[in-house]
Amino acid sequence: MSSSTYAGSRAANRPSILDPARPIRGLTIAFCLWKVLVFLVIVSCPGLGYDTSTSHLYEYQDPNSSDVISEDIEDLLLTVPRKFVRWDSIYFLHIAQQGYVFEQEWAFGYGYTQALAYLTSVLQNLTGLGGGVIIAIEAILLSHIAHYLSVLALYRLSVNVFGNDSTTQRLICLLSTALHIICPAGAFLSAPYGESLFSFLNITGFYLYSSAYLDNKNGKRLSGDFKTLLSAVLFSAATTVRSNGILSGILFAYDAFLQLRRVVSQSMSLNACAHLLVAIVSGCIIALGLILPQYIAHTAYCGNDPHSRPWCQWYVPSIYGWVQSHYWYVIF
Fold it and tell me: What phi, psi does 128 have (nearest 5°)?
């Protein structure tokens, strides 16, 4: 055997993390290694840094919760979560713990904070654990789990788009997904932010939407319509986490336009009308993700007095627009 052949044989048999033959295993290992690296970088950062407001988050104690954390681990539980809690995450955790106390807090995703509040309530009922530290740990775990699930969803989406019949196709799917693991968001996908949950919901929605397209293409109409509606539900949930999730509705607006043109230009068929109806209903479901938090805020601040706050008098009342422009000086 020649040296070149022997070297090629060794290269072929050498274990690889990103092995197209075992994509889930490779992605899981890569994900864990990356998260360990990010964790070590964050934890090794000295002190609280310039954002010392994190310390105020732990001053609040819920009078209804019992403190069952022993003093010997309390310092550790305080130190590690504080490294992850910076900037917007302080608001997220405060809202999850106490609700929307201040008007400017409505700039932060309703869906994410309510998910944290629900998880906190369940854990507290089961174990009695509560307080800012526990919420921070829950949020960190939620970010890691959601990021990992979004990686798996992106791989399945890539398979739907690129296929996996050849080694090249499988490698493209694997590499495109691996890039999502080490994406520039970095620590934001590990910290108590809504990015990980939004990523999971949005990417999974696109995966279901692409699966619905393939089902419709193969004549599986009922399955395709069901997946289309389910993808709309996920897009709607993503919109409650981050309002720019509403842009996913463009897909369904385009679908509705195509189906409407088909109904008008061709003979009106039951199949075309059904697809048009599914597209319209899906778009309405996504819109609920933006409208529902607005309605809750409008009920809380405006009520029977439309002059209570300036934004209540707008033609289209929007607490998001008001908070961003008035408190954060961001003009849309």
Answer: 85, 0
Q: Which amino acid is at 269?
A: S
CA distance 191 to 28: 19
> Terminal CA-to-CA distance of the chain, rounded, Å?
68
The gap from C-alpha 197 to its chain's centroid, in whole angstroms, comes to 2
306 part of a folded domain = yes
In a domain, 244, yes or no: yes
pLDDT, one tens digit per residue, over 40-69 is 888 887 765 555 555 555 554 444 544 443
Tokens for 68, please give them: 């069952």
pLDDT in tens, 176-217: 999 999 988 888 898 889 999 999 999 999 999 999 999 988
Number of H helices, E strands in the chain: 13, 0
Q: Report the C-alpha gap between 42 and 188 in whole angstroms.
A: 11
Q: What is the largest CA-CA distance in the chain?
A: 88
59 lies in a domain?
Answer: no
Domain tally, the chain: 1
Q: What does the DSSP 8-state code read for residue 195?
A: H
Question: How far apart are the C-alpha atoms of 272 and 98, rounded to whole Å?
Answer: 48
Classify residue 254: in a domain, yes or no: yes
Q: What is the pLDDT of residues 12-26, one digit of tens each?
A: 454 566 677 788 999
Domain limits at 27?
23-37+75-328
In 3-state terms the chain splits into helix, strand, coil percentages (rounded to 5) of 75, 0, 25
Q: How far apart are CA 275 and CA 229, in angstroms?
A: 11
> 155 or 125: whose pLDDT is higher?
155
Assigned token pair, 32:
């864990």
